[in-house]
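Sequence design from tokenized structure. All designs in this work follow the same two-part layout: the structure record, then the generated sequence. An example of the structure record is given first.
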């Protein structure tokens, strides 16, 4: 996907599209999100982005070194959307929980195809740096030292983004495929051989319910309880 062989031209003279709209980095990010949500990340190229914004493909390189840099900017946009929705809680733990929830909503619910496409990316851009600083600050407020805060930051990030990728992938499956997967769990009790799987047999009605809904809330609760247990005693 990357097209990093060309560098942006010096300067940033204003350019307009064929429709008269002014080009900018944000215009390209908007176009990339729309393309990903409607057609998938694999279609991104200088040509498709140029067509989406109404400009020559080469115009992209005035704003980004290449297409992969647009993808990183999209990832940073996702983080920024979550941060803009976040409000602090009553304490460090509630604040972390709220931050996880708003980011998850953006990645898994609002823009599932985009979330799946960029959740594994490191942006190195301002919103990501804001999120790192905010999360580390909340963990330090919980009493963790620098090393422990870094460890739990990575753990929280992997949990959140991994869960978002899983649910984004599920949400973007064709309707008939998702229905077939759900039906397989709902029919589990009838498919089990008698007596061979006693624990699965006993839990089957509950699995049929839980496996067709999001586990994010329950997993987040478990993670937050673990953090509270691991946190050093407050003075």
């Amino acid at each position: 996907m990357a097209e990093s062989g060309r560098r942006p031209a010096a300067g940033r003279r204003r350019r307009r599209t064929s429709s008269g709209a002014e080009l900018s980095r944000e215009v390209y990010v908007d176009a990339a999100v729309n393309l990903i949500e409607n057609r998938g990340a694999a279609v991104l190229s200088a040509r498709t982005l140029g067509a989406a914004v109404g400009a020559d493909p080469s115009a992209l390189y005035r704003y980004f070194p290449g297409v992969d840099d647009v993808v990183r900017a999209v990832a940073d946009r996702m983080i920024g959307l979550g941060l803009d929705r976040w409000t602090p809680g009553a304490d460090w733990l509630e604040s972390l929980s709220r931050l996880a929830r708003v980011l998850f909503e953006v990645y898994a619910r609002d823009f599932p195809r985009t979330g799946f496409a960029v959740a594994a990316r490191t942006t190195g851009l301002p919103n990501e740096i804001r999120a790192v600083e905010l999360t580390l600050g909340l963990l330090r407020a919980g009493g963790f030292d620098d090393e422990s805060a870094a460890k739990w930051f990575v753990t929280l990030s992997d949990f959140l983004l991994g869960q978002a990728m899983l649910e984004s992938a599920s949400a973007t499956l064709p309707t008939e495929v998702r229905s077939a997967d759900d039906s397989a769990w709902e029919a589990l009790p009838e498919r089990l051989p008698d007596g061979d799987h006693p624990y699965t047999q006993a839990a089957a009605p509950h699995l049929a319910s839980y496996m067709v809904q999001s586990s994010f809330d329950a997993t987040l609760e478990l993670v937050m309880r673990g953090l509270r247990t691991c946190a050093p005693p407050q003075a």
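The first helix runs from residue 25 to 39. We note this feature because it recurs in several other targets discussed in the main text.
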